[in-house]
Amino acid sequence: MQATQTIEEIQNFEGKYPKQLWYLFFSEMWERFCFYGMRGMLTFFMVHELFMKEDVANLQYGATQAFVYAFTFVGGLFADKILGYRKSLFWGGIMMIIGSAILAFDPKQFFFLGIAFTVIGTGFFKPNISTMVGTLYKANDARRDAGFSLFYSGINIGALLGGYACIYLGKNYSWNLAFGLAGIVMTISLVTFLFTQKSMANIGLSPLLHLQDSKRKLYEYATYIGTIVAIPLIMTMVSNPEYTDYFMYTIGPITLLYLVYEMRNFSIQENKKLIAAMVFIVFSIFFWAFFEQSGGSLSLFAANNLDSDFLGVNLDPNGVNNAANSLFVIIFAPLLGLVWVWLNSRKAEPNTVVKFGLGFLFLALAFYTFYFTRFFANIDGMTSLEIFTLAYFIITFGELCLSPIGLSIMTKLSPLKLQGVMMGMWFLASAYGQYVAGILGAGMSSANENASKAEKLITYTDGYQQLAIYALIAGVVLIAISPLVKKLMQEVK
Ligand code: GLN
User: Fold this and answer.
1) Which CATH number fits domain 8-489: 1.20.1050.90, 3.40.50.2000, 1.20.1250.20, 3.30.420.10?
2) What's this model's pTM, rounded to 2 decimal places?
3) Span from the CA of 399 to the centroid of ligand 1 (angstroms)
4) Residue whose CA is closest, atom 10 of ligand 1?
5) H-type alpha helices, 384-452
6) Which pLDDT tens digit goes with each residue over 205-227?
7) Which secondary-structure segment (H or E) carries 196?
């Protein structure tokens, strides 16, 4: 493909954001519409249409989420070694469209087949589009974090629209249509990418361009065929949650060993940066384990213990639980992005380790606020939706100090040849987070099923208080070790 600009010209953009960022923004926005649209339907669909018991459906849901994020490592690896980001995105997009089409055709009969396609498709798509954002910036460009913040808004616009639209269509009209909508929107994402990729200079082209065409094609086709062959295997694993345990026990250590093996190719300086990246990755597991209570215990808490009055307006507490966070991200991500740029211009921007630490402090404050709802409860255990929403407002700032910044720092700390793998590892931490979140949530809800709402309120808020304390400790530890991590990061901020 003829490049219209060189990569240097792209990276020398004027203004706040490169125009290519907007293309990736829209592509990712529609992909997240599809992803969160599906995610929002899964548990409900399993309980009401596949007639699974609630606890089984919850476990099953956790397993799908863990697998989805775990496969980002595979997607990142194959992008770095064989396909390049562009072909990975294309292939991932196609897999996601096929998955949605299968589910649109017959969601009951082919449920796990459709999910398996989505798992592997997201694995190829999600980490690599994030890495591409990083390639739009020069190594020391202070505008990179702001770019990732904007990109993160796009993620949440998609999440908000898809999360609402798909389940609404499914519940009120037809599940075929709802899954079909996810597929149509994913097609829009892919077409957006295909039409705009020519503006990306040589970003994301195959890493094997130095090989003979026929040899390179051989590797590429082997990857495509391998993906298809893996589908039945993934399907079996996803549909048996007990396999998730084995999978989670092995994938982490394997990826770590792989990283150590790769490290032999890099200089001491580069390896120090990789170790710093691992510190961020490990801490993010804890962050997601707490944060992801939103899909699990907090949704049950919302259903059981929240009144539906929000400043005089009647709102569905579960709707608020699903939407508040995305809405706050959309509003505040660009603002916070600008705050970082402004602080930077006054030489007062906190570095990434401190931002991560702040993320945990916000997380702690948010969980204290969830805990605090117990003091607003009536005798029946029903408590304030407003205080609950306030907690989501606070948690959003925690997320914004960690999640987009985490994407950005992965692209800064990884050597070029390992960008996809490291982004995959970043998301693999989310897989572990999801997994641990399920275990934590199950622990909170294991109390007597027949407990009264007032008793449940106490059990859950006790749990949230515990999480607040752990988050506080994590934040303090991070800030305390920040000088050490900064040393490992060297010139990277
Ligand atoms: N909400 C963000 C997204 O969908 C972050 C997900 C994650 O890393 N766990 O991209």
Assistant:
1) 1.20.1250.20
2) 0.88
3) 9
4) 155
5) 385-413, 419-445
6) 889 988 888 999 999 999 999 99
7) helix 175-196
